[in-house]
Amino acid sequence: MLPQGIFLWKSGDGGDVPPSDSASVAASHPSWGEAMAACGPFGEVVEEAGSTFLLGSCRDAPPTVIVRDCVTTMTAARGLAGSGVLGPWGSVAAVEQGGGRGQLRRPWVSTPGNLHVSVVLPGPPASGPWREALADLRPLLLGYVFSEVLLELGAYAQLKWPNDLLLEGRKVGGILIEEARNVVVLGMGLNLVASPPDDMMREDRSVPAGILQIPDHRLTALGLWRTLVTRGKSVYEYLLDDWTPARFLVRVANRLAWLGQTVLVREGGEGKYTAVVKGLSSNGGLVMSRGERDTVLYSGSIFPLRTPRF
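Predicted structure:
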């Protein structure tokens, strides 16, 4: 298993991951040029499970494997976790990925300079209230964890249920969690240097895209990820150790976009309807007030009334 540090993928059975070198990564975007200079030189060879990695000088964060390009970082991270190369909080960060996807498996544009990363998540605790609750609440928990770190950096990101990050009403990032063969991987994309213009986005989008702005901070994509994963791990462990799921749900509800507001809801066969965002259910569903009754939304999309798109 890889130790702490920043690694370059050099060779091995990487499936859809071709070998990477520091020169090609650095040339891809100025942000990555700065990152390679800050974390280089990459010279120490590390062999793990038939693969070869080059270790850089930055060794103060959980292991992150950098790749120049891949199909998806989620597939790469899952493969490295399955072979024992990456443990919990180990990650894969790509300059570009050809098959990035978001909610409902929609394509996610991967522009060099933005953050495209997937991280292996720890399993549930062996005992305590989170043992059974974590599976349902994991997306909200991780969204809250990373929004807390962004808040520490000066960016107040709201959570658009179930898995988007909003800044001043614009989508600046999203997370996706998948589990296969007992390996849970979180994929995240953050717009740091570019976002799709309004006229190029889907007609049925709920909010326009935007770029994450962090006041008084100039972080590269890799530098931001090192902060997110290091601090995020601490926040995650604190929540599971000191908070009950019920207490967490009250706290995270206050970070929901459009809490207490009327929204349009698009839900499967029921079509669309208006409802008021009321809060969260005990298993992470979105509680909606529809006239004199409450319903719980487990899948679907919500749209602010000021910019409906149908």
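Summary: The chain has a mean pLDDT of 89.
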